Amino acid sequence: MQQSVHDALEDGFIVHRLHDAADKDKLLADVGPSIRGAITNGGIGVRNDVLDRLPKLEMISSFGVGYDGIDIDYCKSRGIKVTYTPNVLNDAMAEITLGLMIALARHLPQADRYTREGKWAGSGPYGLTAELTGKTVGIAGLGRVGKEIAQRCQAFKMQVVYFGRTRQDFVPYPHYGSLVEMARDVDWLVNVMPGGAATSKLFNAEIFDALGPEGFFVNVGRGTTADEAALIEALQQKRIAGAALDVFEKEPSVPEALLKLDNVVLSPHQGSATTKTRWMMGDLVTRNLKAWFDGKPVLTPLT
Ligand code: 8YV
């Protein structure tokens, strides 16, 4: 968690840090019954069996826009207020997405290695790469982050289409209600969808085959949305051209097979990880918490 959050909590809160505790069970037994507020990260979240040990819990202030690690229905059933940090990370997320796309198309990591290893002088120019200009990008999950990505793709002279269960009014991009149909029609398939049961392994072998040997897959949503084994197979067999991944099925572990592939660009879940954005996320986390305990409306509620 951001240092700014720790600093802000010094003022008016008694803080117990479960993730740092050597004996978590003992800490929960000792202080669980008196805990009224909790801070967590929406992806890692907090399990219901931990919530069960916090009978006086009134609110959870979650750090992140995704909240797949929190059982929202369970929180509602217990009357626990849950807040999250939407919007403040839209730009950072969109920037990393375009960065990953350019890195993948233009082989930036590989070309950097090539230059450092002195191969330019020894073996000649690196070789030719792909271009974003004029290509079609399909965005799966055209929410607040997806729309920022779409605008930036347009600035790169790409055609934008999107997949979502329902067509959005006043959105200028063609809509697909079928992911496989969109995958068939695009050069770039970008996932921004959240995790959870509804999106689990949505990007499977059928989708990768529809994307095809010239197609690129980018995942900045959640690793659980992709069938990682099917993705690795598609990459190994060159059934898709490449993938850029900021998220993985079982973070922080990244499958050995992915590390060996040259047609992937890997990033350790860095989407929102800029100084500015993480500060704003932390600020929202503490302001939500303080608002609740000051008896004021929280800023960004989920429940
Ligand atoms: C995490 C994210 O919050 O917002 C999300 O859903 O996945 C990230 O911004 C971040 O990784 C916190 O550690």
Question: Could you characterize what this model shows?
Answer:
This protein is an alpha/beta fold and 303 residues long. 38% of the residues lie in helices and 13% in strands. The protein has 13 helices and ten strands. It has helices spanning 3-9, 24-31, 48-51, 72-77, 90-106, 108-116, 119-123, 144-155, 179-185, 205-211, 228-236, 256-260, 275-293; strands spanning 37-41, 59-63, 81-83, 136-140, 159-163, 175-176, 188-191, 216-219, 242-245, 264-266. Strand 7, helix 10 (205-211) and strand 8 form a beta-alpha-beta unit. The longest helix is centred in the last third of the chain and has 19 residues, at 275-293.
Strand order of the largest sheet: 6-5-4-7-8-9-10
Sheet/helix structural class:
alpha/beta
Oligomeric state: single chain
Q: Major β-sheet, in short?
A: 7 strands, parallel
Write down the overall geometry: globular
- Which ions, cofactors or small ligands are bound in this entry? 2-keto-D-gluconic acid
Number of helices: 13
| Cα-atom radius of gyration | 21 Å
How many strands appear in the DSSP assignment?
Answer: 10
